[in-house]
């Protein structure tokens, strides 16, 4: 299985978690997912009244120095941690 296939598999697995991850974990996943699929941030930072979109943008911006492959690997690692934690709490 290639990196892209493994990344897509874990992106699907994360959606099936029984316990919702923390907001911080969700932002980490979001930033890594966007970096892996889109690349560096290509939009302007949302305004201060769009707090949710601004937090998501900041999470993506924080990882923009990573290559798509690094972002995929980091996403898979984080997803595995969350899946293991979810299984342990079940």
From TrEMBL:
InterPro entries, per database record: Acyl-CoA-binding_prot_CS, Acyl-CoA-binding_protein, Acyl-CoA-binding_sf, FERM/acyl-CoA-bd_prot_sf
Keyword annotations of the record: Lipid-binding
Record's protein name: ACB domain-containing protein
Family membership noted in the UniProt record: Belongs to the ACBP family.
Domain ACB: 3-88
Molecular function GO labels: fatty-acyl-CoA binding
GO terms classed as biological process: fatty acid metabolic process
Pfam families named among the record's database cross-references: ACBP
Keyword Oxidoreductase (UniProt): no
PANTHER family xrefs: ACYL-COA BINDING PROTEIN 1, ISOFORM A, ACYL-COA-BINDING PROTEIN, ACBP
């Amino acid at each position: 299985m290639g990196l892209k296939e493994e990344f897509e598999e874990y992106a699907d697995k994360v959606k099936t978690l029984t316990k919702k991850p923390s907001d911080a974990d969700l932002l980490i996943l979001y930033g890594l997912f966007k970096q892996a699929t889109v690349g560096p941030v290509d939009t302007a930072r949302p305004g201060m009244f769009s707090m949710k979109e601004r937090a998501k943008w900041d999470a993506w911006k924080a990882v923009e120095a990573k290559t798509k492959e690094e972002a995929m690997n980091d996403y898979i690692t984080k997803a595995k941690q969350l899946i293991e934690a979810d299984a342990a709490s079940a």
